[in-house]
Amino acid sequence: MYANILVPVVVDEEAKTQTAIEAATAMADPGARITLLHVIETIPVYVSDYVPADYMITARESVAKRLEDLAADIPNGHAAIADGRAGPRITRWAEENGIDCIVIASHQPALSDILLGSVAGHVVRHAKSAVHVVR
Fold first, then answer.
1. What DSSP string describes 57-120?
2. Are 25 and 54 in contact (CB under 8 A)?
3. Angle 119-126/86-96 helices, nearest 10 degrees?
4. Distance of CA 98 to CAs 35, 37, 92, 128, Å?
5. CA 58, CA 41: separation in Å to the nearest integer?
6. 35-79 pLDDT per residue, tens
7. From edge to edge, which strands make up the β-sheet containing 130-134?
8. What is the pLDDT of residues 99-118, one digit of tens each?
9. How does strand 28-40 pair with strand 77-83?
10. 93 and 6 Cβ atoms separated by less than 8 Å
11. CB-based contacts of 21, cutoff 8 Å, min separation 6
């Protein structure tokens, strides 16, 4: 059982998110903190000229609202947003916030995942806490 659980969330993947939340809730100590984290990837410079100036502000507000709604349904649930590359940012956020377990959803691996690596794969390889992968 865990006291401080992190669930990385992609807000437009409801089924995977719900599965990860259910697993986290099942593994949580009574009174455990469960944090839903969404990482907003940086827009590449070569694309930024084509993106409206207020896009990132609007996207962050939308993600924050969705995370808060999801967290409200979880006992002692919290929402957080971070910026950067998803894999490294998730592991760094977990270290900075004393996470003792990361519950992350993953898709069925493909050949490209073996060559390039996925977010879940990065987290499994680099996290200093326990990691549970759900599919």
1. HHHHHHHHHHHHHHHHTSTTEEEEEEES-HHHHHHHHHHHTT-SEEEEE-PPP-HHHHHH--HH
2. no
3. 40
4. 11, 14, 10, 10
5. 14
6. 999 999 888 888 888 888 898 899 999 999 999 999 999 999 999
7. 77-83, 28-40, 2-8, 101-105, 130-134
8. 999 999 987 666 555 544 58
9. parallel
10. yes
11. 7, 34, 36, 70, 74, 103
Phi, psi of 77 (to 5 degrees): -85, 145
Both tokens of residue 74?
A: 């979880």
> Left if phi > 0, otherwise alpha if psi is -120 to 50, otherwise beta: which for 98?
left
Which residue, chain included where needed, has tokens 């089924």? 15
Q: Read off the amino acid at residue 67.
A: L
